[in-house]
Amino acid sequence: MVVISVHDSEEACMKLARAVIIGGIVALLSLVVLGHLEGDNALALNPSARDCDNNSIIYCGAITPDELATKYAQNKTGDLPALYSHYGISATMINAKSQKQGYVTKAGDVYYNGKVVAKKAISVGRQYNTGSWAVGIDGRTYYERYTGTNYAAGVDAIAVHIWFDANGKFVAAVMYSCGNALIATPVEVPTVACDTLTVEKISRTQYRLTGKAHATGGATIKAIHYYAFDSVSKPVVGVAGPDGQSTSTVTMTIPNPGTYKLQAIALTSMGNTSSDGCTKSVVVDQEPCPIPGKENLPKNSPQCVEDKPGVSITKMVNNAEHQTVLVGSIYEYEISVKNTGNVPLKDVVVTDTAPAGVAFISASSGEITGGTWRNTLPTLAVGESLSFTIAAKIAAYKAGVIKNIACVETPTVPGGNPDDCDDATVETVRMIDVCDLRSHTIVRINEKDFNGDHMTKDVSQCEDLKVCRLSDKTVVTIKKSQFDAQLYSKTLNDCVPKPQPTPPVTPPTVELPHTGIIDTFGSSLGLGSLVGASHYYVASRRSVR
């Protein structure tokens, strides 16, 4: 049964231990104290277990880190800093109060958390005892001895303050009960570590990973596993290295673009471990554009498309494809050019030559030279459209449809020259004067609108004409087209009243008796004379006409 005491290995310390440890009580106390020593809580130890004699480096010892720091600062014996420093215990270590609580056995083994952390312990005291040897420190003489040399019967372990270095290696100790310093040969501490991770890019998505780890003090490396973590620390790819190897190389494929943390994790007999040296960051690029000349773009880029330059032109006249225009009037051609491709266009040239009979007057931009309008656009962005207008007129009537063609050409678009053309057509109007027989007025119309049913090109038919209206013998003014010989006479004299002849005075006749042939003949002669006179009157009127 291992019993832990809070007494020094010095013979003076053992006196108190003999009084405390008896039979079965000793065994029970051992278990209790061992449990307390595995933590940092020195207050759990029995504060009465102190050695208050001349062999103690600190009179009555120091049970807790606070007590040790206080008594060290008080330095009543005047030699604590020099003595402790000789055994590797500095003021900084004591004042940090970060020491651990353990115990040293009679066999010279120093324990912490149930594990041997050092062997062959040697302690120092102020008095000589059997088995001791003198050591000079800063002008004073002290006595070292192997722990357990003077342990009292039944005492197997004494509580100690323990300091470790950054790697968990034993440095030194101080006994609770008497403050005596203690040194020992450190036991190699089992350690494991993941040392390095190197990353070599093989391709866009493939990487060669090499990890190195090491183990000491009996620990072992089982394998190295490699992981890729996404932006939210989720593992997305894992590759296991060969078992039993502390250095291994694997190939990892990360299919999706993004930023990833690569980490090598060493699986060891002491658990899994990694480090900053075993952690790297990589960026998996987007899949490149497969189109030659655009490999620098990601595949999902809007620009990762085959270049298809294109341009179109549309032409209108007065907002229509065809218009009828008046001779001498000004009208407008509208020209629109658009980049219909997926690349910007350069040096876009738009031209329009006036057809025969058409004269260009002005343009919204560009130049008109020798009847040809020309406009050069340095660039035309994808989807961009520009519009222009040309004012034109036709000086003289020209029969038929007049077609006007505008074209566009850019070296960006391979192939024919020009790249596109469009036309708009006009036709002129022949205006004529006609006499509208319905209104008897002269009107100007498009010749194509002539209707012989109620029109005549003889405009004189709508001129005024003075005639004699026969119905009432009145001179009136009518249109020539209204003349009707049955109703009117162009001879105005026909409306001049004629003098009435004075009828001859017939002397009274003596009525004779109506008898015989003479009477009959006379009556006939009178009637004939009247008829003859009427005939000659009518004939004379016609000759006047």
Task: Give structural notes.
- The protein has helices at residues 11-20, 23-37, 65-74, 80-86, 91-96, 516-544, and strands spanning 4-5, 100-105, 110-112, 115-125, 133-137, 140-146, 157-164, 170-175, 181-186, 191-201, 206-216, 221-229, 235-240, 247-253, 258-268, 271-273, 279-284, 311-317, 322-325, 330-339, 345-353, 358-363, 367-369, 372-380, 385-394, 401-409, 420-428, 431-436, 441-446, 455-456, 464-469, 474-479, 488-489.
- The longest helix is centred in the C-terminal third of the chain and has 29 residues, at 516-544.
- 14% of the residues lie in helices and 41% in strands.
- It has a six-stranded antiparallel beta barrel. A six-stranded mixed beta sheet has the order 19-27-26-21-24-23, with no helix packed on it.
- It is rod-shaped and about 220 Å long.
- It contains six helices and 33 strands.
- The chain folds into four domains: 4-186, no CATH class; 191-284, Sandwich (Immunoglobulin-like); 311-428, ntegrin, alpha v. Chain A, domain 4 (Immunoglobulin-like, Sandwich); 463-502, no CATH class.
- By secondary structure, it is mainly beta.
- Strand 5 (133-137) and strand 6 (140-146) form a beta hairpin.
- Pfam families: DUF11.
- InterPro entries: Chlamydia_OmcB, DUF11_rpt, OmcB-like_DUF11.
- Residues 311-421 form the DUF11 domain.
- This is DUF11 domain-containing protein.
